[in-house]
Design a protein that fits this description.
Elements: H1 20-33, E1 37-41, H2 45-58, E2 62-66, H3 69-79, E3 83-87, H4 90-93, H5 95-105, E4 110-115, H6 121-128, E5 134-136, H7 140-171, H8 185-204, H9 207-214, H10 218-227
Parallel strand pairs: 1-2, 1-3, 3-4, 4-5
Helix pairs in contact: 3-5, 8-9, 9-10
């Protein structure tokens, strides 16, 4: 039985020629079924070894290790990992900068900082930037046991939602383009006001709530409705 490192195993894909739509469908199916990738940005040998050992024992996660910022960016570009485990003090405190760039390269990635000293200012800086997943190095294995797989699953689902939203924007867009009509300004303005007020009424469900939604006093709102002949 092969017991070599499994962190470099990449799922094979069908490379038979096909249409662009077929290729996109295959890539989508692969993304949905592939093993989540965890990018480990760290040079601490014992911690990297422990993460590899954990992933080998528990399966369901494929680690990719990067010992430099450049290799981390290259791995993020090619692998599109779901999670990044980053030593907060990587290369003299560059962990936050690396995380910011990883988010640009791999949208949807979830950065997790491994913290050895919670008193360093980088902890506050990370939280100020909205990166609040900070795990104490001493309890990393416990976090891996309970938190890594759910986080990877969440990131994977978000990626699928993002892909679906792109498909909707490109494939399910409407095909009606507003045409410029010959309406006079007063007629066009009246129609716009009527549409605006009716939309507020439909959204709010009542006149008083609609007035608040429109940002005008209730009596003013009622006068506007009366002038436009809107009874409901």
């Amino acid at each position: 039985m092969d017991t070599g490192s499994h962190d470099s195993i990449i799922p094979e894909t069908d490379l038979k020629p096909g249409s662009a739509d077929d290729g996109e469908a295959r890539r989508g199916a692969l993304a949905a079924s592939r093993t989540p990738v965890v990018l480990v940005v760290d040079t601490t040998a014992h911690r990297v070894a422990a993460i590899k050992a954990w992933s080998w024992q528990h399966r369901g996660i494929r680690p990719v290790v990067a010992g430099t910022a450049t290799s981390a960016y290259e791995a993020a570009s090619s692998e599109q990992p779901e999670v990044a485990l980053i030593n907060l003090m990587f290369r003299g405190g560059r962990g936050i900068a690396v995380a910011v760039e990883l988010r640009r390269i791999a949208p949807g990635i979830e950065p997790v900082f491994v913290v050895e000293d919670p008193s360093v200012p980088e902890v506050h800086a990370a939280r100020d930037l909205g990166m609040e997943r900070l795990v104490a190095a001493a309890s990393l294995e416990d976090w891996l046991d309970r938190g890594l797989k759910p986080l990877a699953k969440l990131a994977k689902l978000r990626r699928q939602v993002m892909a679906a939203q792109r498909d909707v924007e490109t494939l399910a867009a409407g095909n009606v383009v507003p045409a410029v009509s010959g309406l006079s300004l007063d007629v066009a303005e009246r129609r716009y006001r009527e549409t605006f007020l009716r939309s507020k009424m439909a959204t709010a469900g009542g006149r008083r709530a609609a007035a608040r939604l429109a940002g005008v006093p209730y009596t003013t709102f009622c006068v506007m409705l009366r002038k436009l002949g809107i009874k409901h």
